[in-house]
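User: Here's a structure from my thesis project, written as structure tokens. My advisor, Dr. K., wants to see whether a designed sequence matches the one we expressed. Can you design one independently, without my sequence as a hint?
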């Protein structure tokens, strides 16, 4: 009897390398955090692995693996990879701890310790002035170019990927664009939206209606697609979206996502496919805003 090949995930930390069994297509990012947190004989054993701990490489750049959206994109990139021979690889580091010093062991497989990884060539300047600080200035210029390069890559990535949104109705208010995000526990409405539409008094003063903590403003019907469900609604200081549909909504509607197509959303409670749109947010300066 032939033993089936297990789904293996390779992990490199600043001081060690190991592998775990993990199916990226069938398991979640939370399951990955749990497995890594329980891993014995590691420099981070006993700590909770979570956002800001994991990174991976794709198309010559290093990307964060912090939440469900990052994980969906990670799966898509792995499925699109030309090289199917090796197991997927991630890089794991405790963000609260410094990197090993030059006198300590440094894992050569960890991306930051590979030869030439941080050697970004500086761009020539037509206004360079010789001085006693020329070497220091050149090094600073090199770092600045690296930041700008990663910023361009970040913007290029987010121009083709955004946050999931749907249009629905909450209470008596129709045509409301709502954020679908499992990083939130409940259903939330923004303070300005709540005041504008009478969910709370329009003269609500600081110290009331959530300024001192999370406040439940009651149960309200929410219609997305053809189906109406009732949820406990909380005030939020979120300024980017009027309504945020968190895990309470996802669980009640039994939402299923597609790892390859982020806009493919199906509610298993009614087998209804929702009209989903990816939205990219920018601030007043044109900078991309990341919704966590």
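Assistant: Designed independently from the structure alone:
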């Amino acid at each position: 009897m032939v033993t089936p090949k297990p789904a293996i995930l390779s992990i490199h930390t600043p001081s060690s390398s190991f592998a775990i069994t993990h199916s990226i297509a069938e398991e979640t990012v939370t399951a990955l955090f749990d497995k890594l947190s329980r891993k014995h004989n590691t420099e981070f054993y006993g700590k909770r692995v979570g956002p800001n701990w994991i990174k991976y490489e794709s198309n010559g750049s290093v990307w964060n693996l912090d939440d469900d959206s990052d994980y969906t994109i990670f799966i898509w990139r792995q499925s699109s990879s030309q090289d199917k021979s090796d197991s997927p690889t991630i890089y794991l580091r405790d963000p609260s701890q410094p990197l090993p010093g030059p006198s300590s062991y440094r894992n050569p497989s960890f991306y930051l310790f590979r030869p030439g990884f941080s050697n970004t060539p500086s761009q020539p300047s037509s206004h360079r002035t010789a001085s006693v600080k020329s070497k220091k200035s050149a090094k600073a210029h090199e770092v600045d170019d690296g930041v700008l390069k990663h910023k361009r890559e970040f913007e290029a990535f987010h121009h083709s990927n955004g946050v999931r949104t749907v249009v629905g109705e909450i209470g008596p208010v129709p045509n409301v664009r709502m954020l679908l995000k499992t990083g939130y526990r409940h259903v939330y409405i923004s303070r300005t939206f709540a005041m504008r539409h009478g969910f709370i008094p329009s003269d609500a003063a600081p110290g009331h209606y959530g300024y001192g903590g999370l406040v439940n403003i009651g149960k309200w019907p929410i219609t997305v697609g053809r189906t109406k469900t009732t949820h406990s609604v909380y005030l939020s200081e979120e300024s980017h979206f009027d309504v945020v549909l968190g895990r309470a909504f996802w669980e009640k509607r039994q939402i299923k996502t597609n790892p390859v197509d982020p806009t493919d959303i199906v509610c298993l409670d009614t087998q209804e496919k929702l009209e989903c749109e990816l939205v990219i947010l920018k601030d007043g300066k044109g900078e991309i805003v990341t919704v966590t």
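When you compare it with your expressed construct, this may help: Residues 118-147, 154-160, 283-292 have pLDDT under 50 and may be disordered.
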